Amino acid sequence: MVRPARSNSFAPRIASAADEKATPKKWLFELFEYQVLIHNKFTDALLRRWDAFCSAVGSSQNILRRVTTGPKRKLLIISISNYVGPWMPLNGPKTDWKIWAMLGIMSGMDVEVLSDSLPTSDPSRNPTREIIERFARAHVKGNREGDEHVVVYSGHGYRQGLVLADGSYISQQELHDWFVRPLSTGALLWGLFDCCESSNPFGLGHKAVTYEGEGIPCEPLKTRSRGEVKGTVISIGSAAGNSSDINLNDPDVSTPANQPTVAGALAWAAYRFFYALRKEDKPYVAAFVRCLASKAGQEGQVTMSAIIRDPILPMLRPPPQNISSI
């Protein structure tokens, strides 16, 4: 696939209901055939890897899709930028969903995106409470042992929960009911929360206390139980307090007026970790969290439903063998 150098263009179309029925996820692949990230020295490595992936696949007709008989690997991305009222609009989530979707596709995951910054407005994917709940419940519906589910959130966070564009909240209890409670024994759920106050969005019982050396020692948390957890749940948050975006502006590349190029701390850590800093054969959580650009009060937050020595991130492992073409 050939992409014009330093192009800032976006895909001219987005999914329709007919697209979804005919070729699941083909619309998302087509979206990324265009330059969906500002091309600069920071994003160059990611875009080169994406180009190589696209060339290997050949075309959107051959994008890999998981067969329904094996364990599922699903990624749900929720990105909110266009806030009103007391909450300031955000630019980071506009970049974050693109980074996570690329990583998910290259990992062989089934990717869904809910965002108010898609190149073409799609009301069915606008991250309102009703739509988020519907996609959340569908995300883990029918899960079984061996399935792996990932949910990524990028937007505002507060002590009351995740902040929606209208200023309302999705509470810790709601997140637990939608994502955690339906898990079956042996299923795995990851939460990646790129927002303020993301220390324990699912209300889990164990917290990692250090990331030095091997493994991540945990201590129990004195939190009110949100209910039984049958599967395994791991949550990574960008900060216990305020979380800051990472500035990706490149003076050598012109950008659209009033469109600063920034990314959330977790999305930027994922980019750096997978394409520059990872040395191990497997993407261990402890090594990933050390990549977060942290300052006092903004250290990465890891909570778990059970003590796990050092979990392995779901992104960019070799794609599974039980795959087929659309």
How would you portray this structure in words?
This protein is of the alpha/beta class. Helix content is 25%, strand content 18%. The chain has 8 helices and 15 strands. The protein has helices spanning 17-22, 26-32, 44-57, 92-106, 129-140, 172-180, 265-277, 285-289, and strands spanning 64-66, 73-79, 110-115, 148-154, 157-158, 161-163, 169-170, 188-194, 206-208, 218-220, 232-237, 246-247, 262-263, 301-304, 323-325.
Shape: globular
End-to-end gap: 19 Å
Uncertain residue ranges? 1-24, 319-326
What's the total number of strands?
A: 15
The biggest sheet, with number of strands, parallel, antiparallel or mixed sense and barrel status, is: 8 strands, mixed
Order of helices and strands: HHHEEHEHEEEEHEEEEEEHHEE
Rg of Cα set? 19 Å
Oligomeric state of shown chains = single chain
How many H/I helical runs? 8
Helical content (DSSP H or I, runs of 4+): 10-25%
Q: In order across it, which strands form the biggest sheet? A: 3-2-4-8-11-14-9-10
Strand content: 15-25%
Question: Structural class, please?
Answer: alpha/beta
Topology of this structure?
Layout lengths: L16 H6 L3 H7 L11 H14 L6 E3 L6 E7 L12 H15 L3 E6 L13 H12 L7 E7 L2 E2 L2 E3 L5 E2 L1 H9 L7 E7 L11 E3 L9 E3 L11 E6 L8 E2 L14 E2 L1 H13 L7 H5 L11 E4 L18 E3 L1
Parallel strand pairs: 2-3, 2-4, 4-8, 8-11
Antiparallel strand pairs: 1-15, 5-6, 6-7, 9-10, 9-14, 11-14, 12-13
Helix pairs in contact: 4-7
